[in-house]
Design brief:
Length: 409
């Protein structure tokens, strides 16, 4: 099953419960625009290399399209299309006034110098600047992109269109970024985690967590859970993992990662593989790396009671069915990982108004948004007797579908 078929499987399951009908179902599943561009640059060596760039714009019925940019060797049109549609449903679940998009460049940034990365980013913007914009489509960070990349995007876009901080979010604080954006996805996940654990009768304090991914989402989530008294028993990055059934000391792990660039080799735990983390003995599993990692093959071995999806699309449909049968709760990506786009929305609002919010305000508004979204999804799940994932899609399809029909087709 392709990535987009996987996302559409979840979408269609909900759409059929809602009985939206084939014409609207097809309309909502079909991306508005798929852009694939040549991104050719001169390498430091003088060699010319050509990369492929993508921007898939899925839906704009509720507002400008929104979603991150990923730099990864395995990125392709199918993956971007799946991620773009997830953004449509995610922005609708948290009710921020956006549609969905996603994009990036198929490249391995670890093999590029900083100057090459800058040239690549600027060239990508040259190629897509006429389809993005503060009222059209607003990129943001995703895997292997960061505030520096967002700063280059802002600068390059502004060369064409005049000073435009609101064209991109996740920027550095010195360049109109929002306080709280860096940690926002992890913080949003924490707020949702507190809600569901309360409903399951478990406090965060003393609960055992395993996380796959220790980048923006995974590392902030681990830190915040640790601050809440959670016991992080295993983490992994692309090179491998580390586990400690007594709990990893997260501040020391951060020191280690700062020194070595990886969680592997951390003396406060024993080594494990990055897949071992998915089946670690814990109450809560948080995939926070790439998609499609929970499969028909490993789902029966998952030991967690609860899976909170920090990554986009970590659970394949067959694994999702297995978790449902096994009574393992899954808090879906479109809810659990929505903290990032929520604070991106706050950043965009601040940029449009030329002002800056204090971090306390950002975090308080984020908490309110995440709690409301959780409550709405939980209500639909209870009343329709469906999983949290199907409930989230029902909520989102209702909002996107109504906006589409009201605007006129
Ligand atoms: N950034 C954001 O605001 C949001 C991100 N997401 C999603 O969260 C996920 C992570 O994104 P983000 O944290 O931004 O990305 P980062 O690039 O900051 O971090 C990705 C992390 O995943 C690790 N990783 C990559 N491949 C594997 C693997 N095979 N096994 C274990 N770990 C692996 C990386 O390891 P290494 O560092 O060693 O390469 C790194 O620790 C993605 O699915 C993304 O779409 C969702 C919502 C918002
Ligand atoms: O912050 C944003 O606009 C998008 C974040 C993102 O790409 C995601 O939620 O997957």
């Amino acid at each position: 099953m392709s990535a987009v078929e996987g996302t559409n499987y979840f979408f269609r399951k909900a759409a059929r419960i809602m009985d939206v009908g084939t014409p609207i179902e097809t309309l909502l599943a079909t991306p508005l625009r798929e852009v694939k561009v040549q991104v050719s640059i001169e390498m430091d060596s003088g060699e010319i290399r050509t990369f492929l760039g993508y921007r898939i714009q899925h839906d704009n019925s509720r507002g400008p399209m929104k979603g991150g940019l990923r730099y990864h060797p395995m990125l392709d049109q199918d993956e971007c299309s799946s991620l773009a549609s997830l953004m449509t449903w995610k922005t609708a679940v948290v009710n921020v006034p956006y549609g969905g998009a996603k994009g990036g460049i198929a490249c391995d940034p670890s093999q590029l110098s900083l100057k090459e990365l800058e040239r690549l980013t600027r060239k990508y913007v040259d190629q897509v600047q006429d389809v993005i914009g503060p009222t059209r489509d607003i990129p943001a960070p995703d895997v292997n992109t960061n505030p520096q990349v967002m700063a280059w995007i802002m600068d390059q876009y502004s060369r064409y269109h005049g000073h435009s901080p609101a064209v991109v979010t996740g920027k550095p604080l010195e360049l109109y970024g929002s306080k709280g954006r860096e940690a926002a996805t992890g913080r949003g996940l924490l707020y949702v985690c507190r809600e569901i654990l309360r409903d399951l009768g478990l406090p965060v304090k003393g609960t055992r967590f395993a996380l796959q991914g220790f980048g923006n989402v995974g590392s902030h989530t681990a830190q915040l859970l640790w601050e809440d008294g959670g016991i992080v028993v295993a983490v992994a990055d692309v090179l491998g993992g580390v586990r400690n059934p007594q709990g990893l000391d997260i501040p020391s792990l951060f020191e280690h990662v700062k020194r070595t660039g990886t969680v592997t080799g951390f003396a406060g735990g024993s080594p494990c593989s990055n897949d071992d983390v998915l089946t670690a003995d814990c109450e809560v599993l948080i995939p926070a790396a790439l998609g499609h990692v929970l499969t028909r093959e490993n789902a029966p071995a998952v030991r967690a009671r609860l899976i909170i999806e920090g990554a986009n699309g970590p659970t394949q449909p067959e694994a999702d069915e297995i978790f449902e049968k096994r009574g393992i709760f899954v808090v879906p990506d479109v809810l659990a990982s929505a903290g990032g786009v929520t604070v991106s929305y706050f950043e965009w609002v601040q940029n449009l108004q030329h002002l800056s919010w204090e971090e306390e305000r950002v975090n308080a508004e984020l908490e309110k948004t995440m709690k409301e979204a959780y409550e709405r999804v939980a209500q639909v799940a209870r009343s329709r007797k469906v999983s949290m994932r199907t409930a989230a899609y029902i909520l989102a399809i209702g909002r996107v579908g109504k906006a589409t029909v009201l605007r006129g087709i």
